[in-house]
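Schema walk-through. Below, the input block comes first and the output block second. Nothing else is stored per chain. Lengths vary across the set, and this one has 356 residues.
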Amino acid sequence: MNKRNSTRISATLIGLIALILLTMTACSGNKKASVEEETPKSDYSKAVALINAVSDGTSEVFKDLDNAFIKSWNERTGQSLTIETSSGSSNIEKDAIIGGQLKADITTLGVGIDIDALQVKGLVGEGWQQRYDYNSSPFFTAVAFVVRSGNPLAITDWEQLAQGNVQIVTSNPTTDSDARWYYAAPWAYSLDKQTEDTEAAKAFVTNFHQHVTVLAKDDKEAESAFLDQGKGDVWVTTESNALRITNSTGKGKVEVVVPSVTLAVEPIVSAVDSNADAKGTREAANAYADYLFTEEAQTTAAKHYFRPRFASIAEQFPGVFADATLLTVDDNLTGWEDLQQALFAEGGLFGQLPAK
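--- output ---
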């Protein structure tokens, strides 16, 4: 090889290396930045209005988050912003968005498959779950128990709910998709103890269901049955619900029990892309989702008894959130699509259980 050819090869190699480094740099930006780069900028001189669709269990925290984001957005852009919040069961909000009755720009629903349904209809773009960290779940809670003051039956864990004469109050996953967590939790608990033994998990969930004496339409109805009507020994709900009740209307009447192993409940956020694009609100909608992952928003979530994603924020709320092993649908099960088929779809376990 002569010197001229050697020089050409070296120059080519240097060029290739530079091209690779440039490509890696371009691909290394975080997910939020890529979303913002694709978003057309608004005319900040014109007021903008967002519709925020959320599931019932998060409606209170989103009232404060809405107000805080309005202030933050105005300080950042000078633009006047209003937010109308619609709340209801996750499946009801999803159906209203799909049907066009609810022109939501952004939504935080109770389970990921409800946003998957929006994607199937072309309302949300593919890859929505990878837009943000934590599978686009800004904060989380856990499936927990509410018991009578003094915990007269000494209930501490899942096994006790499937034994003796314990009477359970919970919500119906066929009328309230958020309630799927309450049946998914004993399923996950059983599989955590006996890995891949789905027959044991079916038996455990069946025993759990046999002790359900009130299968309410939704959490509000379950809360009324347990707290106001005095039905049942234990109410299976979320930790955030339980803490809210024990620090307000149920103070001195009920207590919170978080099982040693339970399921994390993870609300999912996404802009409703097609609606936001059509209304010219995509930038504000994306910015709202971004805001949920800030320290300010995480602190607001923790004040409403949701577990923040940032350890630095959780440390500011000592003693609020019980120590527990929190399983997740994605990491400890096989995702919501498989879980839906096993438990809640036609032919799934829940449909085979005795009617309540």
